[in-house]
Amino acid sequence: MRTDVVALLLVTAIAALLPRAVGPVLLGGRPLAPPLRRMLEMLAPALLTALIVVGVWGSGDGGGSAARAAGVAAGVVVVLRRGPLVAAMIVAAAVAAGLRLVT
Q1: Contact 99/70 with Cβ under 8 angstroms?
Q2: Alpha-carbon span 73 to 70, nearest angstrom
Q3: Could you list the residue ranges that cross the membrane (predicted)?
Q4: Ranges of each domain in the chain
Q5: 15: alpha, beta or left, given left = phi > 0 and alpha = psi -120 to 50?
Q6: What is the pLDDT of residues 56-94, one digit of tens each?
Q7: Cα 82 to Cα 18, 25, 60, 89, 92, distances in angstroms
Q8: How far is CA 66 from CA 33, 48, 85, in A?
């Protein structure tokens, strides 16, 4: 992954997560409104998804991105079938590596 992309993602993550750190200080123990709480809870998965999308499709190295996409799809299948996250990562890596070996 390119350094400028990583830097941009880190700055975006810090900017998105900063309200989580500053919010409790400013609110002084008052409970957050439910819509705001739901939005803050969805930030981490959204940022993780952005990292995955950039990592899989952002490099433009030709055939490697198809292997990575297939690996991600295989990992998603394992997670959707309620498999452990470690198993999903191992399956995703194995599928991507196998496709790279074949192609």
Answers
A1: yes
A2: 5
A3: 6-27, 39-58, 85-102
A4: 1-59, 60-103
A5: alpha
A6: 776 666 656 788 889 989 999 999 999 998 999 999 999
A7: 32, 38, 32, 13, 15
A8: 42, 20, 22
Residue 71 near residue 43, CB atoms below 8 Å? no
Q: How far apart are CA 34 and CA 78, in angstroms?
A: 32
Q: What is the mean pLDDT of the chain?
A: 83
d(CA 45, CA 65): 22
Which stretches within 1-103 are classed as H helix? 3-27, 34-57, 63-80, 85-102
Contact 91, 74 (CB under 8 A): yes
